[in-house]
Design goal:
Elements lengths: L25 E3 L5 E3 H6 L15 H8 L5 E4 L17 H12 L5 E8 L2 E8 L10 H17 L3 E7 L7 H20 L4 E9 L13 E4 L10 H8 L10 H6 L5 E2 L5 H12 L7
Parallel strand pairs: 5-6, 6-7, 7-8, 8-9
Antiparallel strand pairs: 1-2, 3-4, 4-5
Helix pairs in contact: 4-5
């Protein structure tokens, strides 16, 4: 069994002294490009070779948008309950507990206020990692409270959508959030307070049917999936083949559903340029 002896193979390091390669050192984009994880972070989590925008969460977006990553989180302790005592393959309460432990989040959206290029801005950002970014009662409540805060303090509101749609474990409670958030945004519009909607990958279902498409400007990241029902459902319903780029940011921009598409590296500048223009302030570099 000499072949089994490590020294016979020229390997001098004992097994217990060898170390595994740490996970997360590399990222492989859907187009097959390999990117160093540290380089990816420095590039706003965008693959430098193909421009692919990796899905990120509220922590990363807050870091991009708020000056020096300084902000005050709003209503951070709100969490969902189980009024319907819902259970499918597992109890809804168990799903919530698992998601909270896995992500460190209370629910699928975080709201915060801070300075962006020196100007006050309220941001509500969804996290897809929490039950697919599904919109339950807490998501609707936190976005509504963020709108109230913006209304009371006369501060622009920005919502970053990343969602699979309504959280059906809450049934009608979830669907009520479409009307609830839409009504709050109407109050912002009446008060002439700017509301910016950023659609990221994916923005689907009830999210698209409510606050995600109600911005004074609707913008998106490149290549994001944006729609109500998914392409497969649309194809099965209509019985027709769909364009290759159907429901992408680029398709929606071409058909008038978006105002513009912005790269993540340009997001902060583009948002503030818009705010400077409509608030009649000097444009900042």
């Amino acid at each position: 069994m000499a072949w089994f002896r490590r020294t016979q193979k020229g390997i001098q390091t004992a097994t217990e002294d060898k170390k595994d390669v740490p996970k997360g050192l590399w990222y492989k984009s859907p187009t097959g490009k390999i990117v160093d994880a540290e380089q990816l972070e420095k590039n706003f989590y965008v693959s430098p070779e193909d421009g692919y925008h990796v899905r990120i969460g509220s922590n990363e977006y807050f870091k991009i948008l708020f000056d020096d990553n300084k902000y005050t989180e709003l209503d951070k302790n709100l969490s969902s309950r189980d009024p319907l005592e819902f259970e499918d393959t597992k109890k809804y309460t168990d799903r919530l507990e698992e998601a909270q432990k896995k992500t460190g989040l209370k629910d699928a959206v975080r709201t915060a206020v801070g300075k962006s290029k020196g100007k006050d801005l309220v941001v509500a950002c969804m996290d897809f990692a929490f039950i697919g970014g599904s919109m339950g009662s807490v998501v609707g409540e936190k976005i509504s409270r963020a709108a109230d805060y913006a209304l009371e303090n006369k501060i622009p509101l920005m919502v970053i959508s990343k969602s699979g749609g309504a959280r059906m474990m809450e049934a009608a409670y979830s669907l009520m959030q479409l009307a609830k958030t839409s009504a709050k945004l109407a109050q912002l519009a009446d008060a002439k307070i700017p509301y910016i909607s950023l659609c990221t990958d994916p923005t689907t279902g009830g999210t698209t049917a409510s606050f995600a498409m109600l911005g004074d400007i609707n913008i998106a990241e490149p290549g994001a999936l944006i729609g109500f029902a998914g392409p497969r459902v649309v194809k099965d319903t209509t019985g027709k083949d769909l364009p290759d780029d159907f429901q992408t940011s680029e398709f929606l921009l071409e058909h008038g559903f978006l105002d513009f598409i912005t790269k993540r590296s340009e997001l902060k500048n583009r948002v503030n340029q818009y705010l400077d223009l409509i608030l009649n302030q000097p444009i900042r570099a």
